[in-house]
Amino acid sequence: MQNKKIITNLVFLIVLFASAATVAGIFSTGGSGEYEYRSIRGQTVTIHGDGLYQDMSADVAIQGIAQDCVTLFIAIPFLLVALYRFRVQSLTGKFLLAGVLSYFFVTYLFYMNMAMYNVMFLVYVALTGFSFFAFLLTLLSIETDQLPAIFSEKAPVKFAGGFLILNAIIITLLWLRVVVPPLLDRTIIPLEVEHYTTLTVQAFDLSLFLPFSIVAGLLLIRKSKYGYLFAPVYLVFLSLLMLALIAKLIAMSMDGQNVIPAIFLIPAIALVAIVCTTILLRNINTHHHV
User: Fold this and answer.
1) How many domains are contained in the chain?
2) Rounded to the nearest 5 degrees, what angle is found at the Cα of 177, between the Cα atoms of 62 and 255?
3) Distances (CA, A) of 184 to 6, 175, 201
């Protein structure tokens, strides 16, 4: 298989660099502890003041640590399993690998752009690059013309595609709930901006990742070859991302923050995403090497 060695090497680099980044995020210490900071907008923000994320707001820092735990203990082992499946030329393995690589790409794209500058900056840059090119090469290794014939006629394309569209709508509404009210009352800046420059997660989601969920869902419902390509990958990515969000919500709840309605919506999305991923991949006809 073309580029197998390159993809394998990139995956091992991701494992190495992500292990270093997550261990640093979870276990690093040092700093003055929590303190209050007045932002350029006059907002009082509680700063975490400890470890790698010491310059981040306390509520965001604990979310970063929670996601680091998911990345270290779930996503990295999953990546190695997916690589093994990929190397034996399993189509399911290609979908799994592309999906988990997209999780690493999105995760460290956000870390690179949102995390307050720290000693791991170049590690985040490297992880974003490694995961992007490994993802691209993995996706290009799939022969799209054969996909409609390889998936079973019983594959739940309408359900899975409809779910991808619904997921995008739900998350869009959650983010607009943050962005729109300040525009209407002319305060302009949401409190969630805190001492950061902008709403990075919402910006990437609303401009790129949520529209892609809608497109993948529509293409899958139409049984397009690109729907069969993008939807399984997105579902794998979404399953991992929702697990990370659940960990973040748990950390926020333990910190006394309000996590409603997300605490009900995110686990439901995670469950359906995992079910859709499992059923869709099980509807791949065996013994195909695409």
Assistant:
1) 1
2) 20
3) 50, 15, 21
pLDDT over 80 at 55, yes or no: yes
User: What is the model's pLDDT at position 2?
Assistant: 63
**What's the token pair of residue 230?**
């993008």
Q: Would you say residue 288 lies in a domain?
A: no
Whether residue 289 lies inside any domain: the answer is no
Distance in angstroms (rounded) separating the CA atoms of residues 204 and 182: 19
pLDDT digits (tens, 9 = 90+) for 63-117: 999 999 999 999 999 999 999 999 998 899 999 999 999 999 999 999 999 989 9
* CA dihedral (175, 177, 178, 181) positive or negative: positive
- Tell me, what amino acid is at 159? F
Mean pLDDT of 39-44: 93
CA–CA separation, 191 and 41 (whole Å): 10
Give the Å distances, CA to CA, from 48 to 30, 35, 53, 74, 78: 11, 7, 7, 25, 30
How many C-beta neighbours within 10 Å does residue 181 have? 11
Look up the domain containing 151 and give its range. 4-282
Q: Phi first, then psi: what are they for 42, rounded to 5°?
A: 85, 10
